[in-house]
Design brief:
The complex is a heterodimer of chains A (141) and B (220). Chain A is an alpha/beta fold. Chain A is 39% helix and 19% strand. Chain A has a 6-stranded parallel β-sheet with strand order 3-2-1-4-5-6, with helices on both faces. Chain A is globular and about 65 Å long. In chain B, 32% of the residues lie in helices and 27% in strands. The longest helix of chain B is centred in the middle third of the chain and has 14 residues, at 77-90. The chains are: A alpha/beta (141), B alpha/beta (220). Chains A and B meet through helix 3 and helix 4 of A and helix 4 and helix 5 of B.
């Protein structure tokens, strides 16, 4: 199984390392060469320097025979475009796109994109934690 | 007519200004504070500050009305694509026009069905190609919706069609000659028009037929 991870920040690098530890062949794409250091000293997978919207670069990274693509750059719109290119141009079924803005995440989810919104996830987790706190009930008059 | 202009750089601000001058209703959206403040002096309530790829910013600008046209003119192609998709598909805006900053992203705009698009680099290249003699077939205009394009072909002395009448040409299916430019004078190409070396011929054809047309007119 082969995965392409676009964007090697905190999120992308951890996903790449985790997928690799689970037996995936992983290719990481990032504009910034220094991002490679996030993968540790002995990253055994491939690392391609360039912009994820560059179709030639995606081909070079092996998108044509990828089973999964994760778009996790720091730009919502960049991820949204990369996700659609992966889905529509390269016909990849498993495309997962990070979108920080809940409104855009919902809109594109409604159009058949697997969006993951860390903002919504954080809100849910924070609310859940607040609710479990043992505080005196507020009396509603 | 109501127009939302996303992006208040040189392109967006000038388009907004021109639209206002011809009496149209405009809202300009600019994200950067410094730019916004400069624009506010001129455009007053007709400019709003925000990221035009955020739904609440677009809604504040009245996208739910919806406007007649949304112009996505920011300096970021991915932003322009998302603005157009949201406008067309969520708010059913009847017409969107997008600026392409990097011509390498044109294929993405096409893939997402965003049309028409304007790319300064491509327009400049088309004009430059027009001046370069080695280019025997020049793209002048793409009619994406019609799936047709207009090209110019330079007939030279080695061309197999020099001296032949248009009606006798075996043009590829889906291609027609439009006009012949000779000695600074353009003429509509009809069956009896005889082609000569030095003619500049305009042809309309389906995209992808250029090579066939080149073979017929230039045998190369």
């Amino acid at each position: 199984m082969k995965a392409l991870v676009i964007g090697c920040g905190r999120v992308g690098s951890t996903i790449a390392l985790t997928l690799h530890s689970e037996g995936w062949e992983v290719v990481v794409v990032d504009e910034n060469e220094d991002a490679l250091s996030r993968l540790g000293e002995s990253w055994p997978g491939a690392f391609v320097v360039g912009h994820g919207m560059d179709t030639d670069l995606l081909r070079e990274a092996g998108i044509e025979d990828a089973d999964a693509v994760v778009a996790a750059t720091d730009g919502d719109n960049t991820n949204i475009v990369i996700g659609q290119v992966a889905q529509k141009r390269f016909g990849i079924d498993c495309v997962v796109v990070r979108v920080l803005d809940p409104a855009r995440a919902e809109f594109y989810a409604g159009r058949g994109m697997r969006t993951v919104c860390p903002t919504s996830t954080a809100i849910d987790a924070l609310m859940e934690t607040v609710r479990t706190c043992d505080v005196p009930r507020i009396e509603v008059r | 007519m109501y127009v939302i202009v996303a992006g208040g750089g040189k392109v967006g601000a000038n388009v907004a200004r021109s639209l206002l001058r011809i009496g149209q209703e405009v809202t300009l959206i600019e994200q950067r504070r410094d730019r916004f403040e400069r624009l506010e002096d001129e455009f007053e309530h007709q400019v709003q500050r925000g990221d035009a790829t955020e739904l609440f910013v677009l809604e504040r600008a009245g996208i739910a009305r919806p406007p007649d046209i949304v112009l996505a003119l920011t300096g970021d192609d991915e932003d322009n694509m998302v603005i157009c998709q949201i406008a067309k598909e969520k708010y059913l805006v009847p017409k969107v026009i997008a600026r392409v900053n990097d011509p390498r992203n044109q294929a993405h705009f096409d893939l997402l069905g965003i049309s028409p698009t304007i790319c300064a680099t491509s327009s400049i290249m088309a004009l430059v190609e027009h001046e370069v003699p080695e280019h025997d077939l020049i793209h002048l205009l793409e009619l994406r919706k019609e799936n047709l394009e207009i090209v110019e072909v330079q007939i030279d002395k080695d061309s197999p069609v020099a001296g032949k009448r248009v009606e006798g040409l075996e043009l590829p299916e889906g291609a027609r000659l439009i006009s012949v430019m000779r000695g600074g004078q353009a003429e509509i190409a009809v069956g009896s028009t005889t082609l000569q070396a030095g003619d500049q011929v305009l042809a309309i054809l389906e995209p992808g037929k250029e090579d066939e047309l080149r073979r017929v007119l230039l045998s190369r």
